[in-house]
C-alpha cells in the first residue's frame, strides 16, 4: 500500500510521541524513534525517512547538529522542530539554519501526516523551493513586488524569504500603508503552497457574528438568512494560505476559536455538528502593539504566542531614506503606462519635498500622490504643487486673456471649456472654482468613473456626488 511506504522519524523522548505513535503505526506508517543523533543516523541510513520531527535539544544533542548534516545534502529529509516551550527567537534561529518548520506541541495525527512531502516535490529533477539551505528564491511572485533598497527593508525581506517555505505562522506588524499585505502575498508566493489559494480576510471590516461565519462558514438554518451551507475562508484556503488582516480588531471570543484552529487544524461551521479538518498556513497583520494590547486584556496572550512565531516588523516610509524616490519613480512608470501619458520628470523641488515629508500614510499615500501628479503634470515636470496636499502649495492659475475663455471660467458653459480655460501662470482664481475644475479633471482622467475619480481626488464618493449635485443645481453641466 502506498501509505505503508511513508516513513517518519521522531528525534525526541518517548513520552513526547506516546499518544500519536500508535495512530501512525495503525495507519500503516513506518515510525522510528531516537533519543540521540547516533540512533537517528542509524534509522536514516536504514529506512530513509520522508520527514524528521525533532526536539530542539536532548541530553548530548542539539538539533543544530542534525541541520548541519543536512545543509549540504539536497536529498536529506526535511526537519521539523517541535517543542512545548518555544520562543520567536529560537524559531527564527532554527529556520535560518535550515529547519523546514517550527511547531508548538501537541502534535496531532493530521498535522504530522499533512507535513509529509508531496510526491512531486521528492522527484530528483524538482527545482529547490526553499531558502532554508542557502538557496535563494527569485524573483518576486506574480502580483507582488517590494520596491526599495534601504537596509531596514532588506533585512525584513531577507527574513521573509527564509521563512516563506515553512508552515510557521507569521505576524506582520507595521503602520497603515507600509505594505503588510504585499509581504503576505510574497510569503505565500515563495512557499510550496503558491499554486494553492491565498485568501485574505479583513478582521476590522465585519462585526463578530458575521466574521465568525466568514472565517468558519455556516450550515443552512444556523441563523436568520442562512438559506444554504456556506464554506468559510479557512475551508476555501485549504492547502494554501490565509491572511488575517488587522487581527488586533478581532473580538476576544472569536480569538479563542481561532486559537483552536491553530492548535488542532480543525474548524466548526456555525450551526454545524461535525468538525472539519483544514490544512492552512496562517499569516496575520496588525498596525497595533499587540504586546501592549495583551497587557490591557484586549488580546489573548496564548493567541499572541501562537501567531508571533515569526515576527516581521515593516519599517515606516519615513525610516527608509531614499526609498521614497525609488518608489516615486516606480509609481510614475506604473501610472504612465496605465493612463498612456508622456513620462514626467521630478523637479528638484519635488525631490526635496518628497524627502522632507513625514508620510503618515506611508507607501499607500505616496502611491496616491504620484497618481495625481502624473495626471496633473501631463508629461511636464512634477512640482510639489501637483501633490495637492495643501491649497497654499497648489500651482497658481489665471483666467485666459481670451474673452470667451474668461467667460467660460465664470459662467462654466461645458466641461471641455472649463478645463481648457485654466492655464498655469501667475494669477489666481477663487478656491471654489479651482475645486470644481479639479473635480472635472478627475472625472475626465477616469472616463467618468466616480469611484476612481474620488480616490484620485482624495475624497469620498459621497462627497463627490454631493458636489456634482451642487453644480447641477447651479446650472453647470457636469455630465
Automatic annotation (TrEMBL):
Q: Which residues form the Response regulatory domain?
A: 1-120
Q: Which InterPro entries does the annotation name? A: AAA+_ATPase, AAA_lid_NorR, CheY-like_superfamily, Homeodomain-like_sf, HTH_Fis, P-loop_NTPase, Sig_transdc_resp-reg_receiver, Sigma_54_int
Q: PROSITE patterns of this UniProt entry? A: RESPONSE_REGULATORY (PS50110), SIGMA54_INTERACT_1 (PS00675), SIGMA54_INTERACT_2 (PS00676), SIGMA54_INTERACT_3 (PS00688), SIGMA54_INTERACT_4 (PS50045)
Q: GO annotations under biological process?
A: phosphorelay signal transduction system; regulation of DNA-templated transcription
Entries under SUPFAM superfamilies matching the protein: CheY-like, Homeodomain-like, P-loop containing nucleoside triphosphate hydrolases
Residue intervals of the Sigma-54 factor interaction domain: 146-375
Stated name of the protein: Transcriptional regulatory protein
Please give one Gene Ontology molecular function term for this protein.
sequence-specific DNA binding
- Stored Pfam families: AAA_lid_14, HTH_8, Sigma54_activat
Disordered: annotated segments: 116-145
Q: Which domain of life is it from?
A: Bacteria
